[in-house]
Amino acid sequence: xxxxxxxxxxxxxxxxxxxxxxxxxxxxxxxxxxxxxxxxxxxxxxxxxxxxxxxxxxxxxxxxxxxxxxxxxxxxxxxxxxxxxxxxxxxxxxxxxxxxxxxxxxxxxxxxxxxxxxxxxxxxxxxxxxxxxxxxxxxxxxxxxxxxxxxxxxxxxxx
Length: 159
Hints:
About 20% of the residues lie in helices and about 0% in strands. By secondary structure, it is mainly alpha-helical.
């Protein structure tokens, strides 16, 4: 019984090796082709740059969210803001816990002060949440790039 099992395994291994090691014969029909065809004249063009319709921070109404836990969209222009670096985040000058009341801006969410691994509340913002534009995107007045039939769920009143 053991010998016949060994013999069957050896035969199976040999046939698997033969299948893997033998390159298939290539023909014109089996060659790789582009889905767009062979004669592509129109290379894809990037869409034109769009201008953010938001103006000065605080001059726009907050944009309604379309589902629970959606990060709020940035309703103001961000073109003149400095890049977010490890040392500096200009968003915090208005939205940080020290300045939001004075600037009449929404305060960054409490979830930004939660340690991602332990769940404990920290006194300073979590480093994992330092790059605001990783989740929050500026509002743009642009048509969708692809057809979209998304319908948001009713969102409970936001704080």
